[in-house]
Amino acid sequence: MTDRDVGAAGGRDGLTFNVQRFAVHDGPGVRTLIFLKGCPLRCLWCANPESQRPTPEPGFLAGRCLGLDRCRLCLDQCPHGALAAGPGRPVLDRAVCGRCRDFACRRACPAGALIVWGRRMTPEEAVAEAEKDAVFQRRSKGGLTLSGGEPLAQPEFALSVLELAKRRRLTTALETSGWADFEILKAAAPLLDFVLYDVKLVDRRRHEATTGRGNEVILGNLRRLAELRPGPRLKVRAPVVPGVNDCPQAAADLGRLLARLPSAAFEALPYHALGRSKYEALDRPYPMGQAKLAEGALEAFRAATESARAAGPSR
Amino acid sequence: MPAEVLSPQESRLAALAAGRPDPFEISHARAARLVKRIEGQKPVIDVERALHFTRAMASSEGRPLPLRWAEALRRVAENVTVHVTEDQLLLGRAGRHGRHGILYPELDGDFLDLAVAGLPNRPGSPADISPEDARLVIDEIAPFWKGRTYHEALNLALPEDVHRLTYDDPQGLISRFIVNETSSFRSSIQWVHDYAKILNHGFSALHQAAREQLEGLDPYGVDDQTRRRPFYEAAIIVCEAVATWARRHAALARSKAELEPDLRRRQELVEMAQIAERVPWAPARTFREAVQSQWFVQVFSRLEQKTGTIISNGRMDQYLFPFYERDVREGRLDEAQALELLECVWAGLAEFVDLYISPAGGAFNEGYAHWEAVTIGGQKPDGTDATNELTSLILRSKREFPLHYPDLAARVHSRSPEAYLWDVAETVKHGSGFPKLVNDEEVVPLYVKKGASFAEALDYAVSGCTEARMPNRDTYTSGGAYVNFAAALEMTLRDGRMLKYGDVQLGPRTGPASAFASYDDLWAAYLRQHLNLLRAAFIQQRHVNRLRALHFAQPMGSILHDLAFASAVDLHQERVPGGLDFGYVEFIGYGTVTDSLAALKKIVFEERRLTMAQALEALDRDFEGFEDVRALLASAPCYGNDDPYADEIAKELDRVSVEFAEKYSKELGVNNDVRYVPFTSHVPFGKVVSATPNGRRAWFPLSDGSSPSQGADRQGPTAVLLSNHNTKNLDLSARAARMINIKFTPKCLEGDDGTAKLVDFIRAFCDLKLWHVQFNVINQQTLIEAQKAPDRHRGLIVRIAGYSAYFADLSADLQNDLIARCSHGRL
Predict the structure, then answer these.
(1) Does A273 reach chain B within 8 Å, measured CB to CB?
(2) Cα–Cα distance, A256 to A259 (Å, whole number)
(3) Does the distance separating the beta carbons of A66 and B767 come in below 8 Å?
(4) How close B476 comes to chain A (CA, Å)?
(5) Helices (DSSP H) in B609-694: which residue ranges?
(6) What is the rounded distance in angstroms from the CA atom of residue A117 to the CA atom of residue A273?
């Protein structure tokens, strides 16, 4: 990574926080996921808290730190003095940090404990990343997937990547929260083979309470996206989250909604606490605490959704 | 979601967990009994073969070697105790009941007494030997061989500088593990016979052909009378010896039948006797006769000599298919009966142990199992796809059979049928890592380039671990040198010495590493050390090839080979007219060396974040108190991540090696090609190499084959394959197998979707024209280990809920959760 790579998104270039190769569960075939940074929602259960803010930010993965007794390489590296020796480990003062463009601390850390989430990328670089696995994609009809964060929150970059990917004959997929200006989604649709569309809750107020936004835009966009002809293949995905939507009512609501989208596939995903260590790395509290999905809750949600869907939208 | 269909293995485990009877036992009663009898059994050494072989050799000194060997085999065939295994449908054992191994004193007789005397007290002793048998070894067998073995001759022959890199002691009993010779702990490298010849024609045909050759000899011809005559006389002796041995089994089965109270078993014994009275002397007529005939040949092959990794089984789905097809068509055989016979073969394989009791061989082959490869799939000699019903039956049998037998190798090519690859993928998913895959798209063109016809190359059989053999064209049997290039790296940093060996000047003096001013200086010094080891390997090989011809013969193996038979030259001779000689020089520590050079290049010479002196001090202390230096070095680009920085170094390492091999193979007279197949040598090789600049601690294993360093692959399996591809020098041809291991968790390949993705992955492997890949579907135990040592398992991808993640990056809680969830991965 060069210094140029770290910085805010702007225009055609994008801000990403991860690239994952050999993703085989998010869309058809072997895919390369480009994760875009910045999201309008603040879901309580978000597994990628580093994806939320639209600017680069440092993280400290304490588990990787060698400890100050073995390594002090980072200590005098911050020009702003945001890094100081703490008990056994360095401490990052976020009030002081964040103004810096080159993140010398990250480059100083040999263990990968101090990291910076946020890498500037051109559309060409993003597509080149995906094309590294071209041999595998060709065989599996895989390709490039934009994920996030909310990819459509960086519309110019997202559309440029998709356009270029299409020109390079990659299959394209989008993982979206649906919270975007429909015009952007509409512009993206002809460039997409596959859309994985998150619907967390049909109940507007609960949606707002648990994600920070209402769901009118999301549900409206979903309906209009499904009506596009021709349109991308559509899969609605619902995370099943304890205390949020792991109840028969939420499943029934979702089922009725799906009944109006006959061509959409559906998948329920279980809540997991994988993001916890990243909250710690960002010095943020983990909103879900010790919540756990009850045994059988996923299957019950899936069954209730499917049965409501089968009963039709009128009920 | 479609209802999940449980695999046989899954239903077996589910049934056992629920306290129900083992379904394998119900549906495969005979195989279950055969397995149960030997499961967990400690192998016992049977000395009979060694005893009779030695007595015969002691009485024939001075005579032509093929003739002596054939006489010895006759003595063995006539005198070893024969056994009928309870419940078995096949006759023929190399030794006593239960798990057993046999001795080859012609290889290690000079120190066999020491080894055997120490056996009872050896920690983790691999085998028992009775006191009477131990006495025979100490009093009779070993004394004869002292001063007569090939190993002693090689030890005396090696020039001093090469000896120093080969052995750690004057007697050559302890390896240096730097330029490791492998020719003295096996008579032959991995090998495949042309089994079809015996199934279709029987030894009687070879017997007849040998007699005709004898009759056609020029009575005045010096060559005919001194070389060809003993060869064909040996041929006749050995044909008769195999038949005698088989008929002794038949006679025993008949006498057992008379005493057998169980009527069904009595009938089986009678049938077994009838078959053994016929084959392998006469051609086989049925599938069952064919299986028995092949089994006799492979077991007798074990009596003939020690073949590295045990004699391979060849293209079983090809040479057995005509018999299978005819029997099924004519109603003599059904699938269940065919499966039962195959299981009898696998159970027979499982009873034989490939013993390495010499200090060098034992350490080198730590945890060494068996690679008596059964090949399936691929193409026919005319280039059409070769898969058939027997192919899928063998795959099914592999899924059902509970032990790690047979060692199954599936050939793949660009037109392999989807159904076959699906079947292969389903078998891989069972978790034992089989079948391993070998790629026609790489092997066939390379073999054609090196002189084979397309028909020969297309008909190759996988042999041993990753090799490909053309049973009537390959003629080279010498074990090659395994070269520890991590040692070359250490010598570069220590002016030609190694921490382990103190003051011994092992390599050229290339100056103190702290004086290297640039990466170019470092590379130049490394290259001198690297080429010095290759030089020693090739000189060593010259002596190996010359001396083996004086010590070893294999009359049966030779008459099964068209070229050896026609020219009356034993396969262990240096040159068989018309043969293709494919040997190997083994590159061990590829990832370790690449990553170490990349780390020094980037951290010391480019970014200047460390001085060479600091790096060296950290290495001297094995990173104790230098954890920051270790982390810094380890943060440099590594091979296996599709990263051009590391891959370019790896490609250059390959290039200098392959170029050396191309140039000096001509002088050596064989294709001594560069190969990346360590077996388990990267473990003992690591034990002599101190800390390396890639962050590897002293005495830890080196990287394995052409796989990335342990834990260095962080970009997933596609990047592992791509790095492998990127680092091959496709413009050169002195290339051979590259072994790759890929890890998956069962969850990652779950369901039909997972199978489809594995099939696509295999297709991409085929497209990349990589030689070999083996999948490791990780089980629970591995996850537990990964939790304890995350650094060494960084590349392990696990599937969790809607996506996959690196196991090492997960919280302890979630890791525990996954470990608990992964129990179905046990195999």
Answers:
(1) yes
(2) 5
(3) no
(4) 36
(5) 612-620, 627-634, 644-668, 682-686
(6) 20
- Kindly tell me if the per-residue pLDDT of B200 is higher than 60: yes
Chain B hits for A277, CB-CB cut-off 8 Å, are 811
- Provide the CATH number for the domain formed by A3-55+118-311 in this structure: 3.20.20.70
Mutual orientation of helices B627-634 and B612-620 as an angle, nearest 10°?
A: 120
Q: Taking CA atoms, what residue in A is nearest to B758?
A: A140
Kindly report the pTM of this predicted structure: 0.92
Any idea which fold A58-115 has?
Alpha-Beta Plaits (3.30.70)
Q: Which residues of A touch B717 (CB under 8 A)?
A: 22
Q: Establish, for the pair of chains A and B, how many residue pairs have beta carbons separated by less than 8 Å.
A: 98
Per-residue pLDDT tens for B437-456? 999 999 999 999 999 999 99
Q: What is the pLDDT of residues A256-305, one digit of tens each?
A: 999 999 999 999 999 988 888 899 999 999 999 999 999 999 999 999 99
Among A21, A72, A274, beta carbon nearest to B805: A274
CA nearest neighbour of B23 among B46, B6, B39: B6
Find chain B residues with C-beta within 8 A of A66's C-beta.
Answer: 627-628, 631
ipTM of the shown complex: 0.90
Interchain CB contact of A104 with B (< 8 Å): no
pLDDT digits (tens, 9 = 90+) for B665-691: 999 999 999 999 987 788 889 999 999
Chain A CB within 8 Å of residue B639 CB: no
Query: Considering chain B, what is the average pLDDT of its residues?
Result: 90
Element spanning A143, H or E: strand A143-148
Q: Are A259 and A222 in contact (CB under 8 A)?
A: no
Question: Is the separation of the CB atoms in B297 and B280 below 8 Å?
Answer: yes
Task: Looking at chain A, list the stretches that DSSP marks H as alpha helix, in order from N- to C-terminal side.
Answer: 104-108, 123-131, 134-140, 155-167, 182-188, 204-211, 216-227, 248-259, 276-281, 297-311
| Nearest residue to B317 (alpha-carbon basis) of B403, B370, B380 | B380
Query: What does the domain layout of chain B look like in residue ranges?
Result: 8-38, 44-144, 150-174+479-553+581-712+725-739, 778-827
CB contact under 8 A, A135 and B722: yes
Phi first, then psi: what are they for B439, rounded to 5°?
Answer: -105, 110
Length of chain A: 315
3-state helix, strand, coil in chain B (%, to 5): 55, 10, 35
Q: How many angstroms separate the Cα of B325 from the Cα of each of A45, B252, B287, B328, B706?
A: 60, 31, 9, 5, 40
Domain ranges of chain A: 3-55+118-311, 58-115
Q: Does B802 touch chain A (CB under 8 A)?
A: yes
Instruction: Report the gap between the CA of B773 and the closest CA in chain A (Å).
Output: 15
Amino acid A172 reads T
Burial of B635-649, coded b for 16+ CB within 10 Å and e otherwise, reads bbbbbbbbbeebbeb
Q: Give me the residues of B, 171-210, that contact A with CB < 8 A.
A: none
